[in-house]
Specification:
The protein has about 350 residues and is mainly α. It has helices at about 1-25, 50-60, 70-90, 95-110, 130-150, 155-175, 180-200, 205-225, 230-240, 245-260, 270-275, 280-305, 310-335, 335-345; strands at about 30, 45, 115-120, 125. Helix 4 (about 95-110) crosses helix 5 and helix 5 (about 130-150) crosses helix 8. The longest helix is centred in the C-terminal third of the chain and has 28 residues, at about 310-335.
């Protein structure tokens, strides 16, 4: 069954993406190069519409039409419409945030909520009560924007999202949650199908249409499955899976606060920009970030299978790894650029 789900969504996305490309060109949903962007040519965007449509078809064919799923689909429609409007008209940051809050609010009111956590070691349950609503909304909006901020190179956001979706889906299978697995694999197949046209050199960009949709869906299904019997440690699992976009977003917020710029202000200091400046090619940068995402995903799977103390050890190791990545990147950029350039040439 899962193989059929992946295959159908993949094929649908492969067929739909060229159609969406023509549609984007016709309505003027185009991405023009500028000083902040890496690409040098005018590119059609709104490619995420193909991911969304293939998912919706799979949703109607494979998923049970239950009351609990319809608010999720309604939220997905709102967030996709938000991305389409932004791809066409460049919405203001406030306008985008308002519509994101609306999509998250609809989903939360429909029953997708983080209602409690269980403290480790003492097994004491802490109920969030009315705080469950704002906490869940913040999580959805934060992850949605984290994926959106990562969408700066050909295939980057789509590939990282596919890795996260595959990991969440496999964890759902391990936990005996077939509904979550179906949703995750539908999204995975749709994203990989689109990635065939989006990997460098890209023929179409997913735009905010795709980045916001994928970020929204990843945030929602992580709540549906990984937070089900929420302990503090299970809350960490989706954060580990999404380690790359979350770290990139946190660093971007800190950077803009230090520079006294609006948090929504764009710049060219995201992780992919920094790696390119260090000497890596476009494709090498994307593949390196894929590898980092896969490492975080593997750590998340090990995290769920380990004992409490084992999970603690993995978490500490990840924290040390993140610190080493930050320090080594800074060291290389200052002192070892010729060495990195040599490595880059050897690995072309």
């Amino acid at each position: 069954m899962l193989y059929i789900v992946i295959a159908l969504s993949f094929i649908l996305s492969l067929i739909l993406t060229p159609m969406v490309k023509k549609f984007a060109v016709r309505i003027g949903a185009l991405d023009y190069p500028n000083a902040r962007k890496v690409h040098q040519y005018v590119m059609p965007r709104m490619g995420g519409l193909a991911i969304f449509i293939s998912f919706v078809i799979g949703f109607l064919v494979f998923l049970p039409q239950t009351y609990t799923l319809w608010p999720i689909l309604l939220g997905a429609i709102i967030i996709t419409a938000t991305g389409m409007l932004d791809d066409l008209y460049q919405l203001t940051a406030r306008g985008k945030l308002t519509l994101q809050l609306l999509a998250a609010g609809v989903t939360v009111i429909g029953g997708v909520q983080l209602e409690f956590i269980t403290l480790p070691f003492i097994d004491e349950r802490v109920e969030f009560g009315y705080w469950a609503i704002p906490i869940t909304i913040i999580w959805i909006v934060a992850i949605t924007n984290a994926i959106n901020l990562l969408d700066g190179l050909d295939g980057l956001a789509a590939g990282v999202s596919a890795i996260a979706l595959f990991t969440i889906s496999m964890l759902a299978v391990m936990m005996g949650n077939p509904l979550l697995a179906l949703i995750g694999f539908l999204l995975f197949g749709s994203t990989v199908g689109f990635l065939a046209y989006n990997f460098h050199p890209a023929k179409i960009f997913m735009g905010d249409t795709g980045a916001l949709f994928l970020g929204y869906m990843i945030s929602v299904i992580s709540i549906m499955g990984l937070f089900k019997n929420a302990t503090i440690f299970s809350l960490i699992v989706p954060i580990i899976i999404l380690g790359v976009p979350i770290l990139d977003t946190v660093f971007a917020i800190i950077r803009r606060m230090v520079q006294k710029k609006p948090i929504s202000a764009p710049d060219k200091f995201h992780i992919h920009h920094c790696l390119i400046r260090l000497g890596l090619t476009h494709r090498q940068t994307v593949m390196l970030i894929y590898l980092m995402s896969a490492m975080f995903s593997l750590a998340a799977i090990l995290f769920t299978r380990a004992t409490m103390w084992g999970s603690t050890a993995i978490l500490i190791a990840l924290i040390i790894l993140v610190e080493l990545i930050v320090e080594i990147t800074g060291l290389i950029s200052k002192n070892y650029r010729p060495l990195l350039n040599l490595i880059s040439k050897v690995t072309v």
